[in-house]
Amino acid sequence: MDVQLEEMTNDLHTALEQLSKVAEDVVAAEALVDKKRAEAAVRPVMREARSKICLLRTELRRMTDSGVRERYEKICVDADERIQLISAEMKRQISRQQTSPRPTAYTEMREEKLLGEGCSQGTGFQNSQQVLRAAINVQNDMLMSLARTEKTINVTEESGQETLQALVRQSEQMYQVDQDLEGLQGDLDRAGRDVRWFFRQLAGDRCLLSLFGVLIVAMAVLMGVMIYKKRHAKKHEA
């Protein structure tokens, strides 16, 4: 039984040595794609080493000698820790390659440019001349910012004046339109009154014409009656 355990232990050590050797390729690779390719080659060897640990532990569970079992169990624990260290190192290598440095922000770049030797934190000044140059740069930048702000304010004021003038012109045009509408309404009112007067006059004329017609009819009837009477009288005389 001890001979079998020794053979299994030797196989485990051989698998761990092979695992360490192939894991070195991950560390040696420079490009991320090469590291991932080397890491993919390590995984089967790592699974093989863990399977040998499982086989050794299965065999240990059959042992009745506690001393032997404890000695070989320590070998299994050491092997597990070694595999975990190798796996963690591969993950660190790949994650470090994937993590890119944070790009310098625009504000930091401007601060470095203004402060010069002092860097963005102002901790790199070596003498008072460097501090004075940095102060002059900062002051000039502030003056330029104030000039840009003033120019923006002037442009805004000019735009506001133009907008105000446009609103005044629109108000004048609307007032003129209102005046024209009022004049048109007055013309419509006068036209309405003229139309009503015309119809009233027409109605009056109709009454006059009706009376004149009735008078003519009455005169005609009267003349007819008189002629009839004259003819009737002549007949009686004859």
Number of helices: 5
- Number of structural domains: 2
Choose one word for the global shape: elongated
Task: State mean pLDDT (0 to 100 scale).
Answer: 80
Quick overview of this protein structure:
With 238 residues, the chain is mainly alpha-helical. 88% of the residues lie in helices and 0% in strands.
Explain what you see.
The protein is an all-alpha fold. It folds into 2 domains: 97 residues, Methane Monooxygenase Hydroxylase, Chain G, domain 1 (Up-down Bundle); 100 residues. 10% of the residues are buried. The mean pLDDT is 80. This is QA-SNARE protein. Keywords: Membrane, Transmembrane, Transmembrane helix.
